[in-house]
Design a protein that fits this description.
single chain, 302 residues, mainly alpha, elongated
């Protein structure tokens, strides 16, 4: 089995690139480890397929470094994978199972980001389009022969309209950008603390030791739900691993639902900068200069 897997990986050596997602790489690593391949060889086989992360791990380990440190140096989300690796190797938890669970978590987190990005695409595109509306009004005025730019340069009222319109456009841009940014999903893996704790207790350590290890690798403190699960496990004397993994999955599902809700709410929230800033800027930059140009031409005729 090991030779067949190695041959398959080596056939893909030339002309290959980094797998499409981090979850793919982690899952391949878990499969290699489950077949009995040692971790160092598994990383080398992945590096042979063109994985830049695996090559970084191989190089750093050859120089005397640790796998977890090498993964952390690769940036997010590899830092989370490195934390899971460090916890699993410290407590003796099965690496293959731990990495498979991390692959599922990474896949769910990526799916959440993708779904929210798709949901945000329409309202964010509409917001960008609406910011061009006042400038379109200026071009329309010029096309009709009113020369609004000259009015906003020479006429005192036109200057005031131009300055006010530009200020409102700037406020609208910052406002809409802030709304879209706040609707984006939070970085990291939802339920990551519970996932790390589940890996730790799978290795047979106590809950207190598991919490200490999670804090040591940067997992932070447990949230309210995770703390409740740990308390339930202590009081009922039941294994906490399955409860923690279920809580991690629920946290990822909740993050996906909340992301879609934020995207849906963004459409209505974008009406605020439209009504407060964009439409007044349209009047100041497009309509007012045309009116001032008509009044100026009328006074000259009289």
């Amino acid at each position: 089995m090991e030779l067949n897997l190695v041959a398959l990986l080596r056939r893909r050596r030339r002309g290959t690139r980094e797998p499409s997602t981090e979850a793919d790489t982690v899952l391949r690593l878990a499969v290699l480890l489950r077949t009995g391949i040692d971790p160092a060889s598994a990383w080398r086989y992945l590096a042979d397929t063109g994985s830049d992360v695996a090559q970084t791990v191989v190089d750093r380990v050859a120089a005397g470094g640790e796998v977890a440190e090498a993964l952390d140096a690769c940036g997010d989300p590899w830092g989370e994978v490195g934390a899971a690796w460090a916890v699993a190797t410290t407590v003796g938890a099965p690496l293959a199972d731990s990495l498979r669970a991390m692959s599922i978590a990474l896949q769910d987190a990526a799916a959440t980001r993708d779904e929210v990005s798709v949901a945000l695409a329409e309202p964010a595109g509409t917001a960008r389009l609406m910011t061009w509306l006042p400038l379109v009004a200026v071009l329309m005025g010029a096309a009709l022969g009113f020369d609004p730019v000259r009015v906003m340069i020479t006429n005192p009222l036109g200057i005031a309209c131009g300055v006010g319109g530009v200020v409102l456009l700037g406020v609208a841009h910052r406002w809409t950008t802030s709304l879209v940014r706040r609707a984006q999903p939070l970085p990291g893996i939802p339920g990551f603390h519970a996932e790390l704790t589940a890996i730790a207790v799978t290795g047979g350590v106590s809950l207190e030791r598991a919490q200490a290890l999670v804090r040591q690798v940067g997992g932070g403190e447990p949230d309210t739900e995770t703390a409740g699960i740990l308390a339930l496990s202590r009081s009922a004397g039941v294994p906490a691993a399955e409860l923690l993994r279920a809580a991690s999955g629920i946290a990822r599902h909740r993050a996906r639902t909340e992301g879609r809700l934020r995207a849906a709410a963004l459409s209505s929230r974008l009406l605020l900068p439209l009504g407060v800033c964009i439409l007044p800027a349209f009047l100041l930059l497009g309509v007012a200069p045309m009116l001032l140009s008509v009044l100026a031409s009328t006074s000259l005729t009289l």
